Amino acid sequence: MHSARTPDEDAPTGRTLGEALAEGTVLLDGGLSNQLEAQGCDLSDALWSARLLSDAPQQIETAHTAYARAGAQVLITASYQATFEGFARRGTGRARAAELMAASVESARRAGAVTGRELWVAASVGPYGAMLADGSEYRGRYGLTVRELERFHRPRAETLAGAGPDVMALETVPDIDEAEALLRVVEGLGVPVWLSYGVAGDRTRAGQPLAEAFALAAGIDQVVAVGVNCCDPADAGRAVEVAAAVTGKPVVVYPNSGEEWDADGRAWTGRGTFAPGRVRDWQRAGARLVGGCCRVGPSEIAALADQLEAAGA
Question: pTM value?
């Protein structure tokens, strides 16, 4: 078990996530927001679950703990929608915002400690569109240059890296420009990363070919896995195949429930199609870091854990 540490301390003993992925499949957690809602939390604020870092931090730790007890080996922090700009709109200054971002890493670390098992903490770095809170992360193409996106992402990425996570999750990235910006930002921070796109069919959310999108990470040693998240489960399998073929890296895959997000109504619609049994197909295609995203809860993660145990992973 990795212990909590400050940025100045040595890295924790034990395997790195990259080493674990080289040896077998590692199980991610599920959607944090749906678990928080199941605990009775109101996430109607523009900061979404990140608001609770200030208002109800114990709720976040409780949600992480639920996933750890379900068998998750990687806990993703509540920093997806945590930005300096977003906190500023609520009257939170930069120093306090930085404290809250660091606290997201500490909360996941404490929750993982209850299991006594090997567990890694992934600091979530969500896309620019998540800060806008208008569903833009499902479209991309914000009208910003790569350099402008770099300027937005750099302060938060540096803050999260300084909090000592085991890995950073560059997740739900909708287009290639933002992926390029994020990869530039994390270079030199000394923390491994995974890069996962939001996709629709065989393209990024912004409509770019997946082979082109995944190729950005192919030669970067800092990237320990590349793949997709927050997509329809039906789109995950082909994306895994392309990511593995293009990059030769372990593939990360954590789709949502299969329901659709209505950004105007701020609600999920449709029916869930997430089936834990699909993990076998993902593994055969090259997936080594698997889990769920929005609307996938601890019970589904426990079912994934059972599938992986049955497969000897």
Answer: 0.92
Q: What is the DSSP letter of 174?
A: -
DSSP letters of 213-264?
HHHTTTT-TTEEEEEEESS-HHHHHHHHHHHHHHH-S-EEEE---S-EEETT
Q: First-to-last CA distance in the chain?
A: 19
Q: Which residue has the higher pLDDT, 49 or 299?
A: 299
Q: For residue 183, what are its two tokens?
A: 């990869």
Return the structure tokens found at 23: 């040896």
Q: State the pLDDT confidence band at 258, using cuts at 50, 70 and 90.
A: confident
pLDDT at 9 over 70: no
Instruction: Quote the CA–CA distance of 146 and 195 in Å, as a whole number.
Output: 16
Tokens in use for 242? 């392309």
Residue 13 has pLDDT above 70, yes or no: no
DSSP letter (8 states) at residue 278: G
CB 172 within 8 A of CB 131: no
Tokens of 258: 């299969």
Nearest-angstrom CA–CA distance, 302 and 139: 31
